[in-house]
Amino acid sequence: MPTISMFFGIIIRMYCSPGEHNPPHFHAYYQDYRATIDIQSCEISEGSLPSRQRKLVLAWAEIHREELMADWDLASKGELPFPIEPLK
């Protein structure tokens, strides 16, 4: 699962496999926490993150929604997604 972004100790990854299950999503990791985030709604669909990291990830997802959807299209075809600019 390639890393597409990293910021403030948070790692953002997206699976690359043909026919990856919907809805479009990515995975966020912070220390021992893991969460799956729905790209379209910018909400956590599974798992959890600490409050501060959750806010950062969801804000980042809203800013980069179009890029995340483009990466989802690539990844669902088994292609590697492009890196996305981290929060600064």
What does this structure look like?
This protein has 88 residues and is of the alpha+beta class. It has one domain. Helix content is 28%, strand content 30%. It has two helices and five strands, in the order E-E-E-E-E-H-H. Strands 1-2-3-4-5 form a five-stranded antiparallel β-sheet, with helices on one face.
The helix-strand sequence is EEEEEHH
Rg measurement, Å: 12 Å
Question: Mean of the pLDDT scores?
Answer: 93
Helix fraction bin: 25-40%
The N- and C-terminal alpha carbons lie at a distance of: 24 Å
Task: Count every helix, treating DSSP H or I runs of 4 or more residues as helices.
Answer: 2
Kindly report the spatial arrangement of strands forming the biggest sheet: 1-2-3-4-5
Number of domains: 1
Structural class label:
alpha+beta
Strand content: 25-35%
Overall shape: it is: globular
Largest sheet: 5 strands, antiparallel
Q: Give start-end ranges of low-pLDDT stretches.
A: none
Number of strands: 5
Features:
single chain; 88 residues; alpha+beta; 5-stranded antiparallel beta sheet; 2 helices; 30% strand; globular
Quick take:
By secondary structure, this protein is α+β, with helices and mostly antiparallel strands. It is 28% helix and 30% strand.
Give the arrangement of secondary structure elements:
Layout: E1 3-7, E2 10-13, E3 25-30, E4 33-38, E5 43-47, H1 51-63, H2 65-76
Antiparallel strand pairs: 1-2, 2-3, 3-4, 4-5
